[in-house]
């Protein structure tokens, strides 16, 4: 059934889909590592597709369906060529999210309904485009490899539809300045031209970054300046589609966008012996983060490593434990350090992870009380609680200590229910350890 609410179309499908154990969002389980191949569960909901609509009959384009990435609740990221080079006779249509995870308000589901086992039905979100912003290097200089921002007509309202994260650093090179050997995760739809998004599957492919000299060994792209060449990378694999993202899973659980595929020829026929094609080209996103941030927020980039302009404010000091304790998607964040990423979270490590499961025989009301004790010289600075729905408000005491107390209130329920708890800490002795001062060295020598 189609619903028309402020030009936002949501397609609901009859039937029950079990999404109670899904915690896949920007604050994901750090231990999750997807296998290569099709994905069967609801994951990577920020991956969408761009439709080109025929100006006369309103039908979508028959073979060109670029991919887009939700990076804030009202902006998606795409390649500049997909946003500007529209096929003749077509116009920009809708951005489609095939796995739109609705929250309780959109599903019109109450707490009592959830306790009785009622769940939200799957949905497909069709969102019109309000504006397109091309990067100046493409708009004014015609750079072939560049990015564009598309503003949605209204923000995505579901609190479970969290955007993908922009990178805080260049993941193409490691800390020593050399080409990274870490395999990245490439996410895309299974079919070349997604049509039936209700049944459309996603698939994961592990790719590796190739040396830069291989990017132009077989095919030297035209109209690419030296500047944009430095914003390109090449990977292993083949058959990539324009706009499909290559991601890095940070140790804190965040999925960060490393690059967008520029598209290219399909995989060669293994039965035909031909010269290998040029490796697929990708647009690195890290150099564009200041421009993306300024375009969305309307202000110049400042301390971007400390404050996320897309709604996740990360203060560094608090007089009371409850400050900055709240929900982010399916996760309740207990502690200021739960919002840290990249270099800010290098000193954090997860030392506790447990999944709780209950299947009562009758209607049950239960409140969990946990005491998490860390190892010697370890201070607990963050506790995360992952739940199917944002039910109740957990409470935590005595953070920044070796022992924390956690209370998780649950509603009355009569069906199987799962949630998980993670505890993060850091070694308190690392900050106190330092090299001997010159004065002490002189004393020892004497």
From TrEMBL:
Leader sequence segment = 1-21
Q: Which domain of life is it from?
A: Eukaryota
Under InterPro entries, the record lists: CLIP_Serine_Protease, Peptidase_S1_PA, Peptidase_S1_PA_chymotrypsin
Keywords attached to this entry: Signal
Record carries keyword Signal: yes
- Is rRNA processing there in the keyword field? no
Q: Which PANTHER family match?
A: FI17609P1-RELATED (PTHR24260:SF145), PTHR24260
Q: What is this protein called?
A: Peptidase S1 domain-containing protein
Q: Which lineage do the record's taxonomy fields give for this organism?
A: Eukaryota, Metazoa, Ecdysozoa, Arthropoda, Hexapoda
